[in-house]
């Protein structure tokens, strides 16, 4: 079952593009292209967390436990990535609480326990709200373990879907935050190849997402054009994977 936003006009290439290798680890120029501004990253991830809690609520209201469990998987990835933005004690504790409650939702959803799912989701909403009120002040951390590729791709797909919906409804700020989160997630994808062509494709994708996140444009149509650039880079990665 797809994420709610992913149902809105996303094509196959955007939904399942095999963007393996987006971790930019070559030269200093590539690294700077792969990193959005710090102030964009933290607020973007916090906003995406809040948005995805809303989607989890939708699945619960439909008693769709399979999709709720899948949504919780994406939330766990986002929460862990958000937690890694700072070693500040308050930040770490708040996001640790988010991760803990996400685990409770996953367990309740897998057992299809409606009452437990409701309690866990209410706890998650409180935990995410508390975390959203904080700003990271410490040093960024490395994720303790790499995310599963499938979970990562589904999460990126959902973010692109949410961005499309936001821009179609004129919410440019939300669309830009989705782009900022997408750029940060792109850094986590496995570096499956080390060819010049793949490195170039990876750099283009990350840069397109960053450009959309940091654009000064306020016209939804103009920002949608930037997101088309993200989709095109995604398609290029997809084509590269198919012809490998």
Report on this model:
- The protein is an all-alpha fold and 244 residues long.
- The chain has one domain.
- Helices cover 71% and strands 0% of the residues.
- It has ten helices and no strands.
- Helix 3 (38-61) crosses helix 8.
- The protein is globular, with a radius of gyration of 17 Å.
Radius of gyration: 17 Å
| Secondary structure tally, helices | 10
What's the total count of β strands? Answer: 0
Low-confidence segments: 5-36
Integer tally of domains: 1
* Percent of residues in β-strands: under 5%
- State the end-to-end distance: 29 Å
| Average pLDDT, all residues | 79
Q: Report helical residue fraction.
A: over 70%
Main sheet attributes: strand count, strand direction, barrel closure: none
The dominant shape is: globular
Q: Could you name the key traits of this structure?
A:
10 helices; 244 residues; mainly alpha; 71% helix; single chain
Please render the helix and strand layout as text.
Layout: H1 12-16, H2 28-34, H3 38-61, H4 65-83, H5 89-110, H6 114-132, H7 149-168, H8 172-186, H9 196-214, H10 220-242
Could you write a compact summary of the structure shown?
The protein is mostly helical.
């Amino acid at each position: 079952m797809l994420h709610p936003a992913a149902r809105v006009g996303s094509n196959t290439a955007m939904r399942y593009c095999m963007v393996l290798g987006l971790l930019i680890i070559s030269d200093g120029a590539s690294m700077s292209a792969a990193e959005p501004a710090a102030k964009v990253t933290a607020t973007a991830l916090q906003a995406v967390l809040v948005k995805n809690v809303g989607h989890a609520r939708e699945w619960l209201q439909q008693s769709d436990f399979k999709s709720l469990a899948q949504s919780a998987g994406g939330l766990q990835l986002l929460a862990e990535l958000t937690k890694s933005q700072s070693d500040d004690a308050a930040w770490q504790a708040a996001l640790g609480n988010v991760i803990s409650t996400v685990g409770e939702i996953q367990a309740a959803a897998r057992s299809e326990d409606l009452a437990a799912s409701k309690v866990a989701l209410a706890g998650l909403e409180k935990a995410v709200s508390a975390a959203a009120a904080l700003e990271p002040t410490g040093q960024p951390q490395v994720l303790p373990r790499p995310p599963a590729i499938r979970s990562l791709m589904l999460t990126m797909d959902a973010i692109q879907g949410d961005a499309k919906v936001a821009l179609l409804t004129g919410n440019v700020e939300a669309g830009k935050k989705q782009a900022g989160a997408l750029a940060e997630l792109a850094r986590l994808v496995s570096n499956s190849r080390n060819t010049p062509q793949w490195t170039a494709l990876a750099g283009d994708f990350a840069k397109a997402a960053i450009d959309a996140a940091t654009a000064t444009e306020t016209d939804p149509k103009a920002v949608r054009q930037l997101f088309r650039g993200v989709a095109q880079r995604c398609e290029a990665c997809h084509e590269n994977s198919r012809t490998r």
